[in-house]
């Protein structure tokens, strides 16, 4: 087979992101509205701001999405890693959402491309959370054992799909004629299943934690949101609200300022309840609803160095970050670069390195804003041992350090 007949991982990733977007758009009506308004806002923003493309070309930004999925076990997370490997997406960063002010019983990583040229071609990323089942503060022994039994019996992905993904990752691409079928099977694995849900099991888990019910109450996983990127998130928030879509109270992450946009600002809205069938203990099937898919949008800024991130965390710990922002951050990219607070390619303040990752506080906020209540916890000790090293060992892969990746982008110039 000639090299020209092979599709590279980035081409598969582009089709995967587009396929998920089409699937999600067909099932979650608010999503196409969100994409349409995001595209409008981006178009208008580019017209008015000559330097709008410094944080990514209009084409990249308008096609850009991130998704989120949740899985139950290390083995399921390892399977996700194998599947995403075919799309050139590798695990980056470790987020412990149990440590948030309102804890969520998951530990997470993000699968994404890491090389600058790969990001420029298509930066699709998936925030991937694993249920923190070993943490006794959330799961007592009896429940943990029953959840484990349930999870051990289900299969999120067809083994043949994972086997194909492994071959594609090893070969660095896929024969063109096989690409659509492969991508189609991968997309289908993330649809919200129509299989009847075991009612008493789902209800029992829901009483303990909505996250546990969403992850371990169903027999499959699903994309729970797909997030377009927007160049002016405040304007998008106004337009969505004007259309009668109830957004969460705030935009999460850094406040709007006149200086350089840093890190990541996000906001979300709750999706509608979706009809699904539930199977009762007597075998009868009843109609019900699940409310597990929602909408989110984000704006990305420059990546901060560790020093910049410490400043950010300190500013965010104050009562009113917007009011004190200029005590923590200078107002120009030149000063940001000179003070070593943010990454710029070749150190040139006209060339910011875009933040490609997530923020734990925002992530926990996004989770919570879409739940009816918090997880109940008890006074037990956390003996789980979860950490980035634990996760890397559990999935048998290196988990990239985001700072090392940003440094490499800075010096690659
Ligand atoms: C993931 C929430 C985190 C983000 O953008 O911070 C996230 C989830 O709800 O599963 O997607
Ligand atoms: Ni998200």
UniProtKB/TrEMBL annotation:
GO terms for molecular function: dioxygenase activity. InterPro entries: HGLS, YdcJ_bac-like. Gene3D superfamilies: Uncharacterised protein PF07063, DUF1338. Keywords: Dioxygenase, Iron, Oxidoreductase. It comes from Mycobacterium celatum. Belongs to the 2-oxoadipate dioxygenase/decarboxylase family. Its cofactor is Fe(2+). Its EC number is 1.13.11.93. It is an enzyme of class 1 (oxidoreductase). This is 2-oxoadipate dioxygenase/decarboxylase. The keyword Acyltransferase does not apply. PANTHER family: 2-OXOADIPATE DIOXYGENASE_DECARBOXYLASE, PTHR39479. The keyword Iron applies.
